[in-house]
Design brief:
Elements (H helix, E strand, L loop, with lengths): L3 E6 L4 H14 L3 E7 L2 H11 L4 E4 L5 H7 L5 E4 L7 H9 L3 E3 L4 H8 L2 H7 L2 E3 L8 H11 L3 E11 L6 H13 L11 E6 L2 E8 L3 H9 L4 E7 L2 H12 L7 H5 L12 E11 L2 E11 L2 H18 L4 E3 L7 H8 L4 E10 L8
Parallel strand pairs: 1-2, 1-4, 2-3, 4-5, 5-6, 6-13, 7-10
Antiparallel strand pairs: 7-11, 8-9, 9-10, 11-12, 12-14
Amino acid sequence: MGMVEIVVAGASGVLGRMICTEAQRIFGDDVTVVVGDRRESRGRETAAGLGGRARSVVMDVADDESVRTGLRGADLVIVAVGQSKPRVQDACIQLGVPCVDVTTDAEVVARVVERDDEARRSKVALVVMAGLFPGLSGLLAQQAAASLDSVDRLDIALRQSTNAEVGPSGVADMLRIVSAPVHGRPGFRERARLPFRSGSAAVRRIAHAEQRVLTEEIGVSDVAYWTAWDNERFNRMVGALIRARVLPRMASAFAVLAQHTPDRPQRVELMARAGGRVDGEAADRIVQLSADSDYGATATVAAALGAMALEQRWAGSGPPLRFSTLGAVLARASTPGITMSESRGTKRSGPLDGH
């Protein structure tokens, strides 16, 4: 493939730096990582810390001209910063540059997906929801569903670490997600026990933007998303703040209180369970995954998807499951930090836990 130049928009943030590092690992010596930052001095400092061929460019995703200037000469763009509208993707269509975006914003995702025809005409891929949750979560669900003759239910769950290194913005984003109402009722209230790799654990139901994607792509209307942290006291506190309507209004204020201790583990677990039928009998299929860290896994997935978009010349727009499979993405990621297991043939005679 030769030398590749990758612009990472928002590269000076916690997740952005991790994506830069993973891009250097996955692409090897044949990559120049370009730190996209609206602050010139901060961008230069980030690039210097990365080493290798890294350099920086001033890039403000809220300004069309700044985006186009920042992408000049790029072979690939990875977006690790929020956008109010998909300016980066629009520039990528004009310039013929593939784009991978870790966004969880439902409105931005919808607007990017609407550009599918334009992306195909320009022969570029605009991949959205390109991380762990969403991203790998949808691929897990896709794989679980594929081994059933028919699917009538999907459960997707994330067990988070309270020690996760995700920065204040990452904490605030998750607090907003869990605070969103589920079918008109407060989020993070309904409970269930679901099987993770480390054993059964209690989780709470949430609304999630990827839910609509699975309904459209897999054709299942009964889709439920769940999450919880690995500390029940923290879960109870979050639930109480939602009931008191302090969250999501004060999400940013509470996020700054989050602390990460480097010498403590921050392992995260993800699972998808598909309920349906095999040979006319009720059955479940479960696919489970664990990773050393939340943002670490997201960074790995984003960089791997970027490599695949370039190597396989993907075209169109949408989530990862529209372009590839779980096995292919994990193979390209090639990291011991993410491990997967799958159970097949489990017959089901009763309702799913928590329903």
